[in-house]
Amino acid sequence: MTNAKMYFIEQELASYVSGYRDDYDLDAMFDAMEDDGLVVWDGDNYEFADGADFDIVDYLQRFDVSGKGE
Q: Average of pLDDT values for 33-60?
């Protein structure tokens, strides 16, 4: 994982899963968000795309690795 990717996950995505970080595959979640056009590289860092509109709950459910939702 690149430092820029790790930084984005730590700064942007971790706030959504505060205290439950190990329950989610944040690396895979980031990749899916990037594939969906929600996260972009600005030349120096990753950031949310302008006008990115998404339901974080959908991503959290898709990348839940805790087994609690089953």
A: 92
